[in-house]
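seq:
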Amino acid sequence: MKLENLSTEISRTTYPGRGIVIGKSQDGKFAVTAYFIMGRSENSRNRIFVEDGEGIRTEAFDPAKLKDPSLIIYSPVRVLGNNTIVTNGDQTDTVYEKMNAQMTFEQSLLSRQFEPDAPNCTPRISGVMNVCDGKFSYYMSILKSDEKREESNCRYTFHYDNPPAGEGRFIHTYMSDGNPLPSFEGEPQRVEIKGDIEEFTNTVWNALNPENKVSLFTRFIEIKTGKYCSKIINKNVK
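struct:
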């Protein structure tokens, strides 16, 4: 698979939906992740990211305008020991609870499927980063409908062990804008990871469509120590 420019891949469509990037920094010292959300409706756009312990949660920017919180209010990032869990929905909690009960990442998602928002049948995308004893590996997953058939669920899990410096993988919910929205296809895209957390964060944020982007979270985890630094950008600012 060709190594692609991350900014180019993100900006390829005006509406990739929600997206996860995981990889390793150029200098090989950090495990890197980004999670972004976008929105077309007023309800989806009425959100911000806020810190919640070692993770984050979504929150209504204007509580008075919040309509249906079921698919837009959740914890995208939680930390379980040496594992950082990143997902696009409340399956974050499922992964956390099941892995805490000694299940694997893949096993933890067997009880979940794509989102109940037909006709879009939005995929659930998830990732877990393991940083332990100076080593780094990660998993990514997508749960999607079989060609928008609501009765059929497809499960794909990808494992990246000792990933190379300066590279990552990018997975998102939609291939492009549309009605219904076309689900992501294929293996997570191989992309370049460049710069420090400031440059990386700006690269992702600036590549997102200005009208549809809502919030972005990034984190650099030092592989040697497990210490991390995070950034949050919200389009809605109080």
